[in-house]
Every structure is written in C-alpha cells, then in structure tokens.
Design brief:
It comes from Maribacter flavus. This is Succinylglutamate desuccinylase. Keywords: Hydrolase, Metal-binding, Zinc. Pfam families: AstE_AspA_cat. This protein has a nine-stranded mixed β-sheet with strand order 3-4-6-5-9-13-11-12-14, with helices on both faces. It folds into two domains: 270 residues, Aminopeptidase (3-Layer(aba) Sandwich), CATH 3.40.630; 71 residues, OB fold (Dihydrolipoamide Acetyltransferase, E2P), CATH 2.40.50. The chain contains seven helices and 22 strands. Helix 5 links the parallel strand 11 and strand 12. Helix 2 packs across helix 7. By secondary structure, it is of the alpha+beta class. It is globular and about 65 Å long.
C-alpha cells in the first residue's frame, strides 16, 4: 500500500499542479506555502533534551521527504547544510513537504561528542527504532521514528566524518530481495544526487526481520526508500562539504518532482557493492600517509602502529584492493577499532 501511495504521489507531482491541504505535525496544522519550527522535547525522567525540526510545506501537492542531520553531533557539514536548506528552500516553489531534522543529537552537538550521546554514552545510530520507555538516546530514536520516519514517503540520513575520520564523499542506498521495489527506488534516489561514488548496502531477507539499529535502515525496514549521505571529514565544518550536501538534496528533490527538474545533477556514479575493513590488533599510535579517496592494492602497506616508546607493534597490510572510503586520520587507535574502510572496485 505504501509503494502504491508513493507512486501515486509521484504521478500527481508530474501531472497538472494543484494545491494541497495543511500538513499536521505535532498537533499543529501547517498551511501550504509556509514553514514552521518545532522543538520536540525528549526526557527519560532524569535527562532531558529536544529535537529541532523544521517542516517546510509546499504550496503544491507532492511527496513527503524526511531528512535527518546530526544523528552524530560532531559531524558538522550535515548540520550546516540543514541550516542552509532551512534558510533557502522556498515553500512557495515546493511540491510536497520536507520534514527537516536540524540536529538529531543536540547533546552530542553541544558536548562535541563523536558518535555518542554524552547523556548516556549510547550511539543514536545504533538504537533504532528506539523505545518510548528506554534511555534518553533510545527515546530520541523513538521520537525520530514516530515523528519523522513514519511520516515520510522518502528518507535521507546525512552523515560525515567526525573528529578521527578522514572520509571521502559518497552516498549509499539499501538493497534487499525482501523489498525489491523499495530497493530500486532507493537506488534511483542515490543515482540522482550527483556523487562520484555510491555504495549499495546489501540487506538479507533475515536482516529486515531484526531491529534496524540504523536511522536510515529503520526507514527501509518500513519500506520507505532511503539513502545515506557521507560528506565531511575530521570534524571540520567545511563549507565545500556543506554545499555539496545541499546540492545533493536539491538534486534529489528535483528527481522526486518536488522542485524544477533543472536542478537534477546529471552524473553516473561508480557503484560499490562490497566493502572491507581493516582493524587494529593493538592499542597505540597509528601512522599512515594514506588519505580518503586513495586507491590501495592488495598486499600494499597502509601504515603501522607503535607504542608510546616508538616500538613498532603492527604493520597494516591491505588484504583487498579498493578505494579508501574512510581512514582514521588521528594518531590514537584502540585494539579492535576500524582503521580503514575500503570500497571494493570491480
């Protein structure tokens, strides 16, 4: 039924234009051609926070696009991109509705905390769909699931490399034999966003029966076409990365017929369907001259790890050939941590 509704919305968007009704959010009706800001409170009785959301309700009918930024509060380009879209997206030219989460993890943002929510030391992107009775992070995930994801026809979760991660720009979509139509629509979304590389997240039929854990995967489990963006590096609030995210989201909205089609970025990305990781066997200091986007051959030396006295503990050798999606770009490394994520190129 959801896919039928999505297809109907897209057909409506390309047909004769017509107005639409007000959009109900948080018991507030938002008039067509306007936008409204919300601070959704979240508390577990001990800790409290809020989720800042802007609803941009177009003048004309069309699909609902949910966008989350700042699920990890140290990833700044996505949050800055959300600010730009909030400022510049004109609801009078929009078909449909955008539910924009400005910063999903406010405690992580103000705490300058990579990955974790400092209120309970949990990773918001590992607890979806969340729980209405769980810890503060689990309740934040539940709120996003109920108020944003469940109301969306299409969904994008925007990330970047936080403080230790040197990351190359790419996007990704979910693919599963359990949901072939949803998978195909997600693929088309990813292709329309103008990135040079896109990753296919392979999801088994068994996996969709388990808790999603990830924000965008929760959308996919609900058969909502979903895409991830990864753009930004080392916790730097880069303007180029911010603008690239904004451009990708505008291009996606044009693809979905929510904005004029001239905004679609015409580019055929390289698809990465397999990934490999290199992990550390030691605590220590990581040395490498490799950067995100570098090509690495199987058997090539990636770097090495020493102790505090400069004694070499481990040489890091690639077991696969591929492109560096991200690499630890700062010296500290803990045993078991991922040093490098490689995209395997066919």
């Amino acid at each position: 039924m959801r896919l039928f509704t999505i297809c109907l919305l897209l057909l409506t968007a390309v047909g004769p234009t017509r107005g639409q009704e007000g959009f109900l959010f948080q018991k507030t009706k938002i008039a067509p051609g306007t936008k409204k800001h919300f601070r959704i409170p979240v508390t577990d009785g001990r800790d409290s926070t809020f989720i800042p959301v802007t609803v941009i309700h177009g003048l004309k009918s069309g699909p609902v696009l949910g966008v989350t930024a700042g699920v990890h509060g140290y990833e700044y380009p996505p949050i800055l991109a959300a600010q730009q879209i909030n400022k510049n997206l004109d609801p009078s030219t929009l078909k449909g509705t955008v539910i924009l989460v400005q910063a999903a993890n406010v405690p992580g943002f103000f705490g300058r905390s990579p990955n974790l929510n400092p209120l309970d030391d949990k990773n918001l992107n590992r607890v979806f769909p969340g729980s209405p009775t769980g810890s503060i992070t689990e309740r934040m995930a539940y709120t996003i699931t109920e108020e944003v994801i469940s109301k969306s026809d299409f969904f994008v979760d925007v990330h970047g490399g936080d403080s230790p991660e040197d990351l190359m720009p790419y996007n990704a979509w979910y693919d599963s034999p359990a949901f072939p139509e949803t998978s195909n629509m997600g693929r088309e979304m990813a292709m329309a966003m103008g990135f040079d590389f896109t990753v296919m997240f392979n999801v088994s039929e068994e996996r969709v029966l388990q808790p999603s854990l990830y924000c965008s995967q929760e959308a996919f489990h609900r058969q909502i076409p979903a895409v991830d963006i990864e753009c930004g590096r080392l916790g730097i609030p880069g303007i180029d990365e911010r603008d690239r995210i904004v451009s990708a989201l505008y291009s996606l909205m044009a693809h979905l017929k929510m904005l004029p089609e001239k905004k679609v970025i015409k580019k055929k990305p390289t698809i990465i369907s397999k990934r490999a990781t290199i992990t550390s066997d030691h605590d220590g200091i990581f040395y490498s001259d490799k950067k995100a986007g570098d090509r690495i051959a199987k058997g090539e030396k990636v770097g090495y790890i020493t102790n505090f006295f400069g004694e070499k503990l481990e040489e890091i050798i690639a077991d696969d050939s591929g492109i560096v999606l991200y690499i630890v770009g700062t010296p500290p490394i803990n045993k078991g941590e991922t040093l490098v994520s490689l995209g395997i190129l066919d």
